[in-house]
Amino acid sequence: MTIFLIIIHAIVCIALILIVLLQTGKGADMGAAFGGGASQTLFGSTGSSTFLGKMTTVAAVVFMITSLGLAYMSGHKMKNSIMTDPKAPIEQKAAPAEPEKSAPSEPETTPPAKPAQAQ
Fold first, then answer.
1. Would 83 be classed as within a structural domain?
2. How far apart are CA 37 and CA 25, in angstroms?
3. Closest C-alpha among 16, 11, 43, 14 to residue 29
């Protein structure tokens, strides 16, 4: 289920980016506020919504729903936790094993190093 939701989320994310980039900007209407002839349309109605405007709304709603779904699923992922299950068995640490007693070994006998002779 999570994989399916991630795939839908990625597709909607890419579609939302493309839909927003395809729309025309409204920045040209800002010039009307400083003495242009069409200053009533700056904050007024923009007419009927376009197809891209409706698609943006749909994509944004689906994006938000998938985001909330993924957040919910990641938050409730740990079902079997010691913190949430009070009946979980507690591990007991094993006592350290005593070292084995072995026969004493003979000390190594290495010949002493000869001092270097000057030539």
1. no
2. 19
3. 43
For the chain, what is the domain count?
1
- Give CA–CA dist 45/104, Å, rounded: 98
What pTM did the predictor assign?
0.51
Residue 33 lies in a domain: no
Neighbouring C-beta atoms of residue 7, cutoff 10 Å: 11
Q: Report pLDDT digits (tens) over 55-75.
A: 999 999 999 999 999 999 888
Question: What whole-number distance in Å separates Cα of residue 23 and Cα of residue 56?
Answer: 10
The residue type at 39: S
The dihedral through the CA atoms of 43, 47, 48, 52 has a sign that is: negative
The span from the CA of 92 to the CA of 96, in Å, is: 12
Each residue's pLDDT tens digit, 94-115: 767 676 666 566 666 666 667 6
